[in-house]
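Run log, item B.
One chain of 754 residues. Sequence copied directly from the ordering sheet:
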Amino acid sequence: MPRASYGDRHCVSVLRAETLVTLDFTSRVIDFFTVHSTQPEDEFDNPQALAVLLEEELVVLDLQTPGWPAVPAPYLAPLHSSAITCSAHVANVPSKLWARIVSAGERQSPQPASSALSWPITGGRNLAQEPSQRGLLLTGHEDGTVRRFWDASGVALRPLYKLSTAGLFQTDCEHADSLAQAVEDDWPPFRKVGCFDPYSDDPRLGIQKVALCKYTAQMVVAGTAGQVLVLELSDTPAEQAVSVASVDLLQDREGFTWKGHERLSPHTGVLPWPAGFQPRMLVQCLPPAAVTAVTLHAEWSLVAFGTSHGFGLFDYQRKSPVLARCTLHPNDSLAMEGPLSRVKSLKKSLRQSFRRIRKSRVSGKKRATTANSKLQEANAQLAEQTCPHDVEMTPVQRRIEPRSADDSLSGVVRCLYFADTFLRDATHHGPTMWAGTNSGSVFAYALEVPAATAGGEKRSEQAVEAVLGKEVQLMHRAPVVAIAVLDGRGRPLPEPYEASRDLAQAPDMQGGHAVLIASEEQFKVFTLPKVSAKTKFKLTAHEGCRVRKVALATFASVISEDYAETCLACLTNLGDVHVFSVPGLRPQVHYSCIRKEDISGIASCVFTRHGQGFYLISPSEFERFSLSARNITEPLCSLDISCPRNATQPSHRPQESPKLSQANGTRNITLAPESCEGSPNSIHSKRADITELPEATLSPVSIDSATSGDTTLDTTGDVTVEYVKDFLGSPEDSEKNLRNLEADEARAYTLLIK
C-alpha cells in the first residue's frame, strides 16, 4: 500500500494489461488462487475466476466479464455479515410468495448479461429429495437490516433476499461518509468486495423483532429505538412517502424522565423504493425504548408492540392508534435509562440484591420459629411408619420464592398474542388481544373489529375499539414467556387467513376454549371465559430450571400421515428441551440440546411449527435440531474425488467399531469407486449397493476424531493373537493387492455422506 494509513486494509490487487483493481475486503485475507486452464498445450493460463478465502467469507470474482463482478455464492454465505440480533422462522410458505421473494432477491444482485460463469468450485452433489414444504428463516441484524431471507428448506441455508431499513432514517454517519469519500484519493483504485460488514452506522437501527404474514406478504420490523415498520411486498419499484405516527406509552404519567437515546428521525417526502418489501407505515413508540415484543394480524389490519414501558395497539389501515397501556411500576427507574445508557447505578443494584437476600433469610427464620413442636412430632411419627407400595408418592418440589413487586424492569412486555375466542361470555366469541409482562401480569382486551366488506378481504373504515376484559396476576410474579389459546379440541388456533381461506382446519367454537400461559417457572391452562385454573405443571419446582423459549409444535406420525399431535416444546436455561402434551401438560420427552454455559445459543433458539429448531452455535453458525421422528433434515450428498497417481490409497479393510459408528451422531461416510462410464447418475442409482460394500467403508473416527471430543479410543485392553491376525493379511492377499494396485490408481472415487 502506498500509504501507512492503508495498513489496516485487507487487499488483493489484480492487474491485467492496463486495468488495475485493488480489492478491499472487510476481513483478513487467508489465501487466494485463480481458476485457470490446466491443459499443457495451452500457451497461457487464461484465468477465468479468482477465489479469495477470507477470515469471514469466501469470495469468487469473474475475470472474464468486464468489471470483474463477484459470483453469487450458492453456499457459505456469511450469516454474521452484521451481528444477528433476532431470528424468526416461517413454515409452509406459499409457492407464490416464495417466487416473489426470489424474484426480488435476484433484482438486488443482477448478473451481467455477458457473464456466463457459474460457481467454479465443485462442492459435490445433493442427493436428497426436494423438500415438500418451503421454510424461511429471517435474521435481523445490528445494522438495521433483515439481512437475509434464508431458504431453510434443506440442509444448507441459501440467501434469497435482503431488506434494509436504514434508508428510511437520518443517521449521524451520513455526513462523515461523504467527507471521507471526498478526501480519499483516486489511487490505488479501491473497490469494496464482499458482504461481511460488522460495523453498524447507528446502534439504534438494530432489529429486535420480526413478524411476517405469509398469506398477505405483509411484514413488521421493530428496532432498538422504538421504531415499528409495517412493510408490504411489491413486485415493482415505487416512489412514495411513508406515513409516520407516534404512540405515547407513558400516557403522560408524571415522575418519569427518559434518560436513554433519542429516537431516529425519518426522511420526509417522497422516497424511491426498489422492488421487494416497501414500508407503508412507521409507528414510533415514546419513549424510544427497544421493542421487546411484536405481533401482526393482517386479517384485522392490526399490529401490537411492547417495550419496557408498556404496550400499544395500532390500526395501520386507518393509520391511527387504538390502545396504549403503561405497565411501569413506580420503582421502575431502570426502565427509563434504555439499553444504550450507562446511567445505571451499581450501588443501587447491590443494595437491591442485599435487600432481597436479607428478606428471604428473615422470612425463613420466621417460618422456623413459628413451627409447632407437636406438628413436628406427628410428622416424625408418620415418617417412621412404613408406606404401602401401592400408594403413589408425590414428587419432591422445590420451594419457589415469590418475586418482589418493585423489582427493576417489571413492566417489560414479554409477549403479545391475537386470538378469536370467548372472553366476555361463553356464547359470543370475538377478536381479543393478550399481553404478558415481566412481573407475571396478563392483560386480555376484547376488540371490536369491523367486519370485512362484501366480496372483499379488507374491513370497513370504522374505528377499532379495545376494552379491558380480564387481568390475571400470577402468584410468584414470574415473567410471562408465551400465551396461546386452545380451541374445544385442545388445538391451537389457526393463523390469520388460514380458516377463512380453508387453508387449515377450522377451530372448534362449540366446546370451551382455554388459554395456555407459560411463565419462566410453570405452565398453566385456564378455562375461558371464567379464567379458572384447569391444569398446570411447575417446571422450576420439579426440574430446578427456568423457561427460556416456548412454542407449540405439530408432531406427525411416522406410520400414518393422517395422525398428528400438538405438543408444547420448551427450552430451559440449562439447555434442555422438554416436550409436554397439550392441554394435559404431561411430560413426554426430555433431551439435552445446548450447553448450559452457552447463554447466547439459548437466547437465539427459535422453534418451528413442525418440531425442529435453530440456534446459534457460534456468531456465524446456526445449528439445526429436530424433535420430530418424521421431519428430519439431514445431509445426503456425494463428492467426486479423483486419486492422482502415486497417491496413497485408502485401506481396503479398515476396521470399524459398531459402538463408535454411532457416537456423537456421526454421519455415515462411504468411499466407493465410480462407475466406468463416469455417469453422474450412476452413483445416485446405485447408492444402496454402494453403501453396502464393507471393503469401502471408512471409519467415522478417522474423519471426525479431530472434532469429536467425546470419542475416546482405548487400546490398552487385552491384545491377543487373534486380535493381531485381524490386521494381518495372507501372502496371497498381498500378491493380489500388488496386481490390482495399478488399476486402482487411475480409478475415481465418490464420497457419500449420509
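Observations after the first pass:
- Confidence is low (pLDDT under 50) at residues 175-180, 340-344, 386-393, 649-727.
- The chain has eleven helices and 42 strands.
Flagged for discussion on Thursday.
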